[in-house]
Structures are given as C-alpha cells and as structure tokens.
Amino acid sequence: MTSNFRDHRDFETPLTVGLRESANPFTSLFDVLADGDQDLTGQSYLQCRRRLEQLPLAHPRIMVPPAWIGDADAALRFTTDHHLEGVVAKALASPCRPDAGTPPGRSCAAPPPPTC
C-alpha cells in the first residue's frame, strides 16, 4: 500500500531539527485526581500530592517535580535548572480538581535561562 503523505523528515530544516532536539520531552505531574476507582477530587492538594508521591511512576518521560512548601526560591531554581516551563503554586488546603490552573491554583512561567 502506498501513502500520499511524505515522511516528516522531508520537511526538516536546521531550525526544526534544533527545536526538536531542544524540546523538553517530559510530562510533569503535580497531583493526582484518582487512584484506581477512588476519586480524589475534593481532597486537599497536600493529600493528592502525597498519594501521587506513593505511586510507582518509573518511566523516563514522567517527572514528578519535588514540592517545596514555603520555599519558592528553591522551586524556581529547580524549574530553571531542569528547563521546565514554570511552577505551580497552590494553597495546601485547596481541593484537587481538573482545570485548577486558576485560583486557588496558579501556574507561573519560569524566567528564560541565561544565554552565553
């Protein structure tokens, strides 16, 4: 069977190759909304975060960044050092729920790394 689609490599340029090679290939997890059949929405962020840290997530493309309680500078340093897009800041008692990117949860972009 033949295809009318060209191989994606036919469209690569030095710019697209550089962008692809510099992309951050990780999925970052910050909390968990369900564990098996147990719905965790409505529990506090701290409870959901503790459950997430107990899960066996050994995969090279999954990252669970550490949670820094009361140390925003350490969170920002880790975010910058690991080339992540930003940080998530939540009140410890705020409930876990989908689409919590607005208050009481906020995401903040990390500053760009210095260039030489």
Q: Could you characterize the architecture of this molecule?
A:
This protein is 25% helix and 16% strand. The chain is built from three helices and six strands, in the order αβββαβαββ. The strands form three sheets. It has a two-stranded parallel sheet with strand order 1-4. The protein has a two-stranded antiparallel sheet with strand order 2-3. Strand 2 (34-35) and strand 3 form a beta hairpin. It is globular, with a radius of gyration of 18 Å.
Describe the secondary structure blueprint for this structure.
Layout: H1 14-22, E1 27-28, E2 34-35, E3 38-39, H2 45-54, E4 62-63, H3 72-81, E5 86-90, E6 105-109
Parallel strand pairs: 1-4
Antiparallel strand pairs: 2-3, 5-6
Which key terms come to mind for this protein?
globular; D-amino Acid Aminotransferase, Chain A, domain 1; two-stranded parallel sheet; alpha+beta; 6 strands; 16% strand; 116 residues; two-stranded antiparallel ribbon
